[in-house]
Amino acid sequence: MTRVAYIAGAGRSGSTLLAMLLGALPGCVSIGELRHMWRRGIQLNQRCGCGEPFWDCPFWSAVGDRAFAGWDNAPHERMLDLQRQVDRYRQLPRLATMPVAAGVRRTVDEYAGNMGRVYRAVEEVAQSSTVIDSSKSPTFAVILQRVPGIDPVVLHLIRDSRAVAHSWSRRRSMPEVVEGQAYMATYGPARAAIDWARSNVAIEAAHLAGIDSTRLRYEALVRAAPQELARVRSALGLTDAQTALLAGPVVKVGLQHTVAGNPARFSGDHVRLRPDEEWKSAMSARDRRVVAGLTWPLLSAYGYRIGG
Ligand SMILES: [Zn+2]
What is the DSSP letter of 98? Predict the structure, then answer.
């Protein structure tokens, strides 16, 4: 069985950072957001975290050879089609209801089967028993339960919605795009707040439907990563001594072959852990009120101070 540590959460919650930290540990390999490989890797040939375009990356070439006898033979258009059918928010209630209807089950199983081939190939190529996938999507956390041959561990990463909304407001370039200049999407405060609420509610709903997940807080992670990861240590097969390697302020993470994710994955082989509280001074009071107003029930349930 390949253990898959899946990071679920709202966009801009720090999933790339968490994945980089876990990927630095012995026996673990971080592959970025695997869900996006079919389009951003195979179809668009965007850069891997190692700096090479996907098709030129030796790691991903070896994975493609093992999984499908080469990416040329991989059913990427079919996978994009299946993704549009099942891997979407609106499918979540149908997927999380047991038993899943027969028609949906066949589609999900075909999609999940091909994802399973990739996870197993990654495990073999990296010779790591735990694969870290930071795809974030709550729907995929549910689909993951149907991937054959894997042992899924869902990590629910949460971060203050106001910090998340502030991050969405900043224009940032995408170093993974090989030709021309591209920028990450930006959202206004209301849209960012609604996205945050929708993602976190969906993960809580999946939890109620019997899909186990463990909550991790971004703010605690950057202050004391070994302590914050203590609750998931045994599920990930890690020891105290191993997670102690993640004590900051600077952690060596090495070269990671990540297929999609935040530009932070191109920032070198070390990460600096520090609280990012820029929103507290840079965000307008009005925007803070909008975000807090739209997210307060969950924000408060997660222990964040609304007046903060
Ligand atoms: Zn690479």
Answer: S
